[in-house]
Amino acid sequence: MSFTRRSCISGLFLLFLALACEANSGFLGVKDSQFELNGSPFLFNGFNSYWLMHVAADPTERYKVTEVLKDASVAGLSVCRTWAFSDGGDRALQISPSVYDERVFQGLDFVIAEAKKYGVRLILSFVNQWNDFGGKAQYVWLARNAGAQISNDDEFYTHPILKKYLKNHIEKVVTRLNSITKVAYKDDPTIMAWELMNEPRDQADYSGKTVNGFYGDSIPERKSVNPGYQVVTDFISNHLISEIYFATIHAYTDQWVSGQSDDAQLVWMEKWITNHWEDARNILKKPLVLAEFGKSSRGQGSRDIFMSSVYRNVYNLAKEGGTMGGSLVWQLMAYGMENYDDGYCIVLGQNPSTTQIISDQAHVMTALAHSFN
């Protein structure tokens, strides 16, 4: 498998694009529906910490980034998903189209350098569906201010000016020369993958043909697996695009199937993961990552029981050989970040039982990968 890095910034508007390079053995690749590193299978347990660049933009707060990456590495976690966007507002990376705050970019430089130091690979996301940190609504607002006639936020997916704005941002990030490591982002194997958008949805296209995620019209019988509402996306159709090298899903049972018992939510969760795994294996023939999941500490039931069940499901599917690559819990924080806590916050070491569950999963996934050699 080989392709030019330039393909990531000149192709069609896609949801998820993973980069690999056979010429550099440090880059993660995909072979036979599974992740591969240096010719060997790669399985992982990982985490989300969306806030890394935002916090690192202030040098006096960078110790929080170091703390989380160091503690994650000690626990065996090897992949982190985080934002490479902040469009307008406090500590904005992109102040206006193609205008950037160097101070914030240096914060992202620091995140990548620290991740490399602690052996954590990064998935970097380019823009948000939601209004947090700007999102597609901010792109629309900027385009309207520039005189573009845009009727609604969902034109983000189709309007040539908005698509150009995003492509320019992607190129800016991918070609960025890290001020600390002196390595361009596109040449740094620390960056495992590029995510074109966090949780895209298009209310203007209920067929799901514009963006992917949940099940849509391509396989109608799979719609029954969805949480029970129309989400205007299609997991199958867009993940079939050849430039997308692996598939991702999110899952929040306490929000999506709220009101059901803990046992019922766990049954739903297992069905959600397993159905996507079957389709990734049999139809897409690509690895699958559970890229966001969690259980709020503010709701009912035990977080530890929930996470243990999810991890067991992920491990058992990975044990089948290929396809299930790993999972990323939402979300890890540093000590003293209570103002960031959305209910899903986990501070490694603060809750020993949860930390042990997360670490155990990391080690059994690594051991399983080694057993495939």
TrEMBL record:
Family annotation (PROSITE patterns): PROKAR_LIPOPROTEIN
Region forming the signal peptide: 1-23
Annotated family: Belongs to the glycosyl hydrolase 5 (cellulase A) family.
Reactions it catalyzes: Random hydrolysis of (1->4)-beta-D-mannosidic linkages in mannans, galactomannans and glucomannans
This protein's record includes keyword Signal: yes
Keywords: Glycosidase, Hydrolase, Signal
The protein's name: mannan endo-1,4-beta-mannosidase
GO molecular function: mannan endo-1,4-beta-mannosidase activity
Coiled coil: none
GO annotation, biological process: polysaccharide catabolic process
EC code: 3.2.1.78
PANTHER family: MANNAN ENDO-1,4-BETA-MANNOSIDASE 1, PTHR31451
SUPFAM superfamilies xref list: (Trans)glycosidases
InterPro entries: GH, Glyco_hydro_5, MAN-like
Residue ranges annotated for the Glycoside hydrolase family domain, each copy included: 26-331
Protein origin, superkingdom: Eukaryota
Pfam families attached to this UniProt entry: GH5_mannosidase
